[in-house]
What does this fold into?
Amino acid sequence: MKLDRSTIYFLAGAVGVFVIVQVLITFGILNPFWTTILRIAAVMAIASLGLNLIYGFNGQFSLGQWGFYAIGAYSAADVTYRFSQLNNANGLTVLLMVAIFSTIGLVLARMVVSKIRGLDPLSALTLYLAATIALGYVGFLLGKFLAGPVTSLLVALPKDIAIQIVFVISVFLGGIIAAEISFLFGLPILTLGSDYFGIATLGFTIIVKVLLDNSDTLLGFEEMKGARGMIGIPKVTTWFWVALFLVLSIILVRNMLNSTYGRAIKSVREDELAAKAMGIDVANFKILTFVIGSFLAGIAGALYAHVNGFLHPNTFNFIKSFDPMIIVVFGGLGSITGTVVASFAWALVLEGFLRLWLPEGFETWRFVVYPILLLIMMLLKPNGIFGTYEIAYLRDLLPFRKKVKKTLAVEPNSETPEVTP
It folds into this structure.
């Protein structure tokens, strides 16, 4: 199979942008300030893509994206902190085993729940929680047992290589933990209407923030230091990593939306009753979308944790939870292209140009200028900058497409032409 033209253009464009920015960073043309802005922009694009999947494509108004973003950030940060500062891989092995065994528990519980007809969401949640906690504890014990051998193996490697390995695994673990929690949280909550669902997810974000404020006492993670903020996180999120994960996220969302699952997801947004009438399991597709969107939020949070090497619970308060929502609306609901462009515009304008252009002492006025710009844009173009527009690659059905030529063969004395491949 051949890569079609739009796929080649997309990959070439992505590589070209990466190389240009990397060259500017390498030769010092982009200073650390602007490099950080670009990395944060890519991170926000990943988180916003997850929210656009939930809200823009599935129609579920969610304000919980920032909570899952925080879960991914602190989960990954704890793993890399323990390895870099304490020279111990117990955070990596424990979280990895807990994630694996909890997933097994969810799968086994789903097999049982699927055989019980008429089971209400709260009863199903109880079964899922029981299986997750039981097998998660088994994973915890196994992770503690494997900590020593894995630490010895990683310490034997060059330090730079070892920390990169731990970092990459921790990023995926941040996404997986966020996805598992979103599945359990979404089981009872997704039965609510859109507005009530938004309120419930906002409450979830507030709960996560309060737990992070007391993470050193209530949760027992002393290294997180609660409301004082977590320090000592290795700064290993480079432009290469954020660019790679952003491209992978775009491909994941694009391929999913252009599959049969994606069409079912979008049908739920258009009309739930009509989707049910066509035999689509609306509840399952809501859960699927919510989990994948939260997974991307966890990935983004894990990357963000290693940008500045510092995390504070105030970064994840409910006010900040509106940032990805603003980006999605600004770029255009249901537009992957718009979400990515709006994410970079958000970071460059709010954290970059306005911070530098406003007079000294008036930097906080950017939070006034920015909403005014958003208000003007909403009045002039309520569908967002891009509306539902997508670049060619994102509109295609498959990354690999075999073109089939059709010819018309007209039989003699025949009134109807015959179409042959």
